[in-house]
Write a structure and sequence with these properties.
Layout (H helix, E strand, L loop, with lengths): L7 H18 L4 H4 L10 H16 L18 H11 L6 H20 L8 E4 L3 E4 H23 L8 H21 L6 E8 L4 E7 L5 E4 L8 E6 H8 L13 E4 L1 H10 L5
Organism: Streptomyces radicis
Protein name: Maleylpyruvate isomerase family mycothiol-dependent enzyme
Keywords: Isomerase, Pyruvate
Amino acid sequence: MTVHPSLQPSIDAWTHTIEAISELVSSLVDGEWNRPTECPGWSIRDVVSHVIGGECEALGDPRPIHTLPRDLYHVIDETTRYLEVQVDVRRHHTGPEMTSELEYTIIRRARQLRNERRKPEDNVSHPLYGQLPLHAFLDTRVFDIWTHEQDIRRALRKPGGLDSPAAHVARDVLLKRLPKVIAEDAGAPKKSAVVFDVGGPIEFLRTVRVDENGNGTVDSSPSLGPIVTFTMDWETFTRLAAGRAKARRIGDKVKIEGDAALAERILASFTPAH
C-alpha cells in the first residue's frame, strides 16, 4: 500500500482497469489485434500501445526516437502527433510482444505506485497536461486507461466494467470537463443552464450553469428552466463525452429537449480523448 492512503482509491481503480485490459487481450489472435476501435485511427493494438506508452512515460522512461509517417489522417495537431509516437513505434509488434510488454509495464508501474512517496498535492509535470497535482495526474491516467478499456471491449463485443471503480473516476473527470465544453466551446448563452440526466450503471443529474460573465460551473442541483436537457444512458454519455461516437450515429439513444441549435453545438464540441 502507498504511503498516502488518500491515493489508494485511485491506485486500486488503476489496477482494476489495466488488469482488465491485460485479461481482454491475453488470448487475442493476430487478426483481432488489428480490429478498429472507436478511438480515431487506432486498432486494438494501437490502443494497447498507447496504454503501454503512457505508463512508461509515467515511470520516467525516455520517449522513443521515432519519425512518424506522413499519411496518418488522424494525426492533426501537436497533441495527436505526440501521442502517436508511442503507438506507431509498436505498430508492427506481434501479439505476444504486445502482451509481454504490457504485463511487464504493469508490474513495474504497480511497484512504483506501491512505493509512491510523493504527497497527493505534489505537482507532477507532464508534456500534455502541464503542471498538476499527483492525485489529479493519477485520476487522469485512470480515466485514460478506462476509456481505452471500453474501446477494446466494444471492438471485441465484450461489454463490462461500466460500473467499476475506474468508471467512477472517469465520471468525475468527464464532469469536470463539461463547463468548458458548454460555456466556451459551444458558446452557451450567459445566465443559462444545461442539464445532463444520465441513467444506467452509473446515474446522475448534473447542471452546467453559465454565469453573467460566460463562465461555466457544474453542480448536482436541478435547474428550473434549462435551455437544453440531455437524457441518455451512462455508456452513451461516455461515448459522446470522450469523442467516441458522433451524435448522428447514436441519436436514438439521446433525448434532447430545448434549444436544438445549441444542443447540436454542444454535441459537436466533444472531442476525442486519447
